[in-house]
Amino acid sequence: MHNLIKMLPDSIANQIAAGEVVQRPASVVKELMENSIDAGASSVQLIVKEAGKVSIQVIDDGKGMSPQDAIMCFERHATSKISKAEDLFAIRTMGFRGEALASIASVAQVELKTKREEDELGSLLRMEASVLKENEQIAAPTGTSILVKNLFYNIPARRNFLKSNPVEMRHILDEFQRIALANPEIKFSLIQNEQETYSLPVEKLGKRIVDLFGKSYREQLAACEENTNYVSIKGYVGRPEYAKKTRGEQFFFVNNRFIKSSYLHHAVMSAYERLVPEGTFPFYVLFLTIDPAHIDINVHPTKTEIKFDDERSIYAILQAAIRKTLSLNHLIPSLDFDANVNFRNPGGAPASMGSISSFSGTNSPRPVQDAWKKLYEGLNDNIEAFERQTVADPTANLFTESATTIQSKANNWNSESSGHSNFQVIQILNTYLVVTLSGGMLLIDQKKAYQRILFDQFSENLVKKNGVSQQLLFPQILRINPADAVLVEEILGDITDLGFGLTKDAEEKYWIQGVPAGIGEEDGQNLLEGILEQVKNEASDLGQNHSEKIARILANRAAMRYQAKKLQSEEMSALVEQLFASTNPTYSPNGEIISRQFNDTDISQLIG
C-alpha cells in the first residue's frame, strides 16, 4: 500500500501561506511599505494602477540589499529581524516572520531592484509564481524598488474575489494613512493611475494629521501625553464637538505598529462619556510605547492584533490620560485631577506636553508599581462592564413570539372593507398601533412598519432611478477623508437615484445640493456619514446587492423619527394601509417582526 502523507511542493506551501498574508492588494502595500520602514528609508513612494490589480510599486531610499540577500528575501522564513525564539519578545521592527515576500512572489509577478550604498552595482530579480526567472547586475540608486504585477494571476478564483476598484483603493488608502501617521519623520507620496493623491513632507505628527485628513482637523486636535514606568502614551485626540457618525479615524499604535483593539477603544469612549452623542465617534491618534517584553505581537500574520501582559492597567492609564487631556483643554466640566494623579518621570518632573513629533528616547520601562495603580481605583467598574458585556439579542422586543404571516397584499381582514369602515386603529405609548379585527386585534410596531414602507419606496426609486430630491437652500460641503471619498464614488449612482444631489468642485470636493425628499430634518452631512458608516460596518466590502443595502440603511435612518411619535388618525390609517400593500408586511427590511395578531383566547390569557 502506498504511503498517504507527503511533503507539499514549495510553490503550493507558499500559496497556502499567501492566503493568510496576502488577502488583497492592500495587504501587499502594507508589507512592502513596512519593509521600507525597517530598511531605514527617509523617503517612500507608493505607485498603484487599477487599485493594485494591475501593479503595485514601492520605491524607497533605504539601505538596500546585497546580491545574496536579494535572492534570500524570497525564501520562506528568511528574515534579518530575528534569529532566536527569545527575539520574538524584543521586536521593534515591523516585520519579523520572513513570509511576506515569499507569499507575494507565489501569487504575482515580482520585479526587485536593490542596491546598497557601498556597492557599485545593484541587483535585478524577476520572480513568477515563486520561480526565479531573471537575476542580473544593473546600475541602480541606493535603496529598493519592488514592483508587483498581476496579483493572483495564477489563482483565478482568488482574483475573482477581489472587489471593485473603489473598494480595493479604499483599503489601500487605509494602509497608506496608517503607515504615514506612524512615521511623520519620513517623506511619503502616493500616485494612483498616474495622478498624485498625497505628497507628504517630513513633518510633526500634528501637521501630518492635517495633511492626511484636511485643514479642518487643525482646530479639533488636543495633545495627549502621559508617561508611566509601564507605558507611555502620546498623540492627539479630537474635541468632542467634532465627533462623527462614521468610524475609521481612530488609530492605536503600539511601538509604532498599528493595532486594532475594541478593548482599548472602549477605554477611549468611556473617557468621552456624556461628551459625545450616542452613535458618534471622536477622532484620535494615540501612540503607546511599551517594553516589547510586555506584549505579544505574534498572534496573527497581519500583526494588527496584540496581547498585553497587563491589559487592565493599559485600559486604566489610557482612560485617565484622555480624561486629563479633555480637562486641561477645558473640553469637559471641571474635574479634580490634582498633582498626585499626573504621572511623573522618575526624576519627579512632570511629563512634557511639548512636541510629539518624535517618540524616541523614552526611559526603559520598569516593572509596574502597585502604588500608581491605586490612583485609578474606581475605574475598574468601566473595565469590568466592558469585559462582561454581551451582545443584546436584536429580536428581544415585544414581538418575541411567533408573528402573524400575512399571505398577500390583499389580506382577509382588509379585503372585507371598502375604505376604513371595517377596522379601527388606535396608538399606544406613541410607539405601537392597535388594529381591531373580527375576533381579535393586531399590534404593529410603527417604526418598523415605516422601515418597511420606506424601504419599498427607496427600492422602487433605485429601480426606476427617479428619487425625488429636496434641494438645499445653502449647499453643504461633504467633509470626509479620502478613503470615504473613494467609497462615495462606489455608491454615487445609487445615492443619486435615491434623491441625493452631489456635485464635485475643481478641488475634487463634494458639495451636497439636495437630499431625498421625506427623510425628515436630518441634514445631508449626517445622513451621508451614517450611510457610509453602516455600509462599511455591515460588511468589510460592498457586495453585489449594495443597492438594496443602501435602501435599507436610508429607510432605517428615515424611520427613526417615528420611534416615539404621536400620529394623527389619518396618519395611522394610512400607515396600516401602506403596510399591508407593501412587499412584506410581516417583517422589516432588517428581518425583525413588525406585527403580531392576538385572537380572543390570547387576549383572555393576557388578562386572566
TrEMBL record:
UniProt keyword Nucleus, yes or no: no
Superkingdom assignment: Bacteria
Ranges where the DNA mismatch repair protein S5 domain occurs: 209-327
Pfam families the UniProt entry points to: DNA_mis_repair, HATPase_c_3, MutL_C
Keywords annotated in UniProt: DNA damage, DNA repair, Endonuclease, Hydrolase, Nuclease
CDD domains for this protein: HATPase_MutL-MLH-PMS-like, MutL_Trans
The keyword Ubl conjugation is assigned to this record: no
MF term (GO), any: endonuclease activity
Domain MutL C-terminal dimerisation: start-end pairs: 424-566
Database matches in NCBIfam families: mutl
Family: Belongs to the DNA mismatch repair MutL/HexB family.
Known role: This protein is involved in the repair of mismatches in DNA. It is required for dam-dependent methyl-directed DNA mismatch repair. May act as a 'molecular matchmaker', a protein that promotes the formation of a stable complex between two or more DNA-binding proteins in an ATP-dependent manner without itself being part of a final effector complex.
Protein name stated in the entry: DNA mismatch repair protein MutL
Organism of origin: Aquirufa novilacunae
